[in-house]
Specification:
- The complex is a heterodimer of chains A (110) and B (325).
- Chain A has 110 residues and is mainly α.
- Chain A is built from five helices and no strands.
- Chain A has helices at 21-35, 42-56, 59-71, 76-96, 98-108.
- The longest helix of chain A has 21 residues, at 76-96.
- Chain B contains eleven helices and eight strands.
- Chain B has helices spanning 19-25, 67-80, 98-106, 127-135, 149-156, 160-174, 200-215, 231-239, 243-252, 280-285, 316-319; strands spanning 37-41, 84-88, 111-116, 139-143, 185-189, 221-224, 267-270, 276-277.
- Chain B is globular, with a radius of gyration of 19 Å.
- The A-B interface holds A 37, 41-43, 67, 70-73, 75-77 and B 146-148, 150-151, 189, 191-193, 195-199, 202-203, 206.
Chain lengths: 110, 325
């Protein structure tokens, strides 16, 4: 195996159900329902998924949802903005903990 | 010579099932129903060089339908009893005599449709054509593949965006796309690369909303079209090493339910030099209708019901997902 990640593995996702078929069925049914057209459009959901994929840094998900976004009519400008939303939340999540840092430091320092 | 170019060599597809085999596996056959539509490709001359063009049309091309062939097509339309003539190109707007051709066709068929890239309608020289279209209630199907300048121009070339918006405003001002005007304006949207088109209904809703909100533009319907792996788009697929994956994607999206409604079952296509093909894509691939290349002047009427339709791997583009109906 040259790398841990093989793009062909994405097509084998369903194999995860081999030793736990009932759980896999529940998961895939849920997954399908989540991405169906609803109060949010399937296009909007794919953009959220793309942002989350970058947050969890899953190469399978990035591959799948880049394609899904394009096929649902999103363009690179929208997709890039979605990534910045993920980046802003990640960055913000780090920085907002600075309040803790400051409170602790203020308690400990003269 | 009627064929526009040599039949394109089929790249061997490792593991790709032949389209004819896919039909057979589903117990389907592709044959003709009653021929309602006459599609006429009036030439390859075009002001644009779109990267997805299956006919490799462009400003460098000289092919255009002659006045003699136009007369022969009008006579064929008259004796064929067609319900509609669908005029395409290239850019039909640039073909000399197109206004007269439309007027003559309007006398022999109830409905006319003209496909436009929008930019070719931008010149003041096209005002006469626009008046002709309004007079004969010609439905316009115009290319507007994306809602952003960068995406449109990556596909169709620099300067296309502003011209397209200007022409859409002009068409709306003429009444095109407005309710109760009787002037139909439809948008054609194709993907900007090697992937399938977005859901048509959802895209239409989004375009209605965004065109109205951003530019105050209106239209009637929107059609999503799959990029055909032929011509300039095929070259790009091959050069970018996307060809095999794209063909596999099209084949894996084969939808047997759409075969009965495929447009090739009820139309016949005529090239700028008057020869007959099953569709514009077979025209691009050089696959003639029937057993030999036939000119419209030699045809008593459209091919009869039950006539088999030739198939090739590019047919997968018409059966992928919601299909090309």
């Amino acid at each position: 195996m040259p790398t841990y990640y093989d793009p062909q593995d994405l097509d084998q996702f369903a194999a995860i159900g081999k030793d736990a078929p009932e759980l896999a069925k529940k998961f895939f049914d849920y997954y399908g329902a989540v991405f169906a057209e609803g109060a949010l459009s399937a296009r909007e959901k794919a953009l959220i998924a793309l942002a989350v994929a970058h947050t969890v840094q899953c190469p399978y998900c990035i591959d799948a949802y880049t394609r899904a976004c394009l096929e649902k009519g999103s363009d690179l400008e929208e997709m890039t903005e979605a990534l910045h939303v993920a980046g802003a939340i990640r960055g913000g999540a780090s920085l907002v903990h600075g309040v803790q840092m400051r409170k602790i430091a203020e308690k400990l320092t003269l | 010579m009627g064929c526009p170019q040599k039949p394109q060599t089929q790249t061997p597809q490792l593991g790709l099932e032949k389209f004819s085999s896919a039909l057979k596996r589903h117990g389907l056959k592709l044959d003709r129903t009653r021929c309602r539509i006459l599609q006429v490709n009036v030439g390859l001359i075009c002001d644009l060089c779109c990267r997805h063009c299956h006919l490799m049309a462009g400003p460098h091309r000289q092919e255009a339908m002659s006045a003699q062939t136009m007369r022969e097509v009008v006579n064929f339309a008259r004796r064929g009893g067609f319900e509609m003539v669908d005029i395409t190109g290239g850019a039909p707007e640039l073909v000399p005599g197109i206004e007269g051709f439309i007027a003559d066709l309007a006398e022999v068929v109830p409905h006319l449709m003209l496909r436009s890239n929008l930019t070719a309608l931008e010149s003041p020289e096209r005002e006469n054509l626009l008046r002709t279209c309004v007079k004969h209630r010609v439905a316009l199907v115009v290319s507007f593949p994306a809602l952003r300048e960068a995406q449109v121009e990556a596909q169709r070339g620099s300067g296309v965006w502003e011209k397209s918006l200007a022409v859409l405003h002009r068409l709306n001002a003429l009444g095109y796309g407005r309710e109760d005007s009787g002037l139909q304006l439809h948008l054609a949207v194709n993907p900007g690369g090697a992937f399938l088109p977005a859901d048509q209904a959802a895209t239409e809703r989004r375009y209605h909303r965004e065109l109205q909100r951003r530019w105050g533009l209106v239209f009637n319907n929107l059609f999503t079209l799959t990029n055909m792996p032929l011509g300039r788009f095929r070259r790009w697929l091959e050069n970018s090493r996307n060809y095999d994956a794209y063909l596999s994607k099209l084949a894996s999206a084969f939808n047997p339910a759409v075969v009965s409604g495929l447009m090739c079952r009820e139309q016949v296509s005529v090239s700028w030099d008057g020869y007959v093909f099953d569709c514009d894509f077979h025209l691009a691939a050089g696959i003639c209708q029937g057993e030999k290349l036939t000119h419209v002047r030699d045809l008593p009427g459209p091919p009869p019901q039950g006539t088999p339709i030739a198939t090739a791997d590019h047919c997968y583009a018409c059966t992928a997902g919601a299909g090309f109906t």
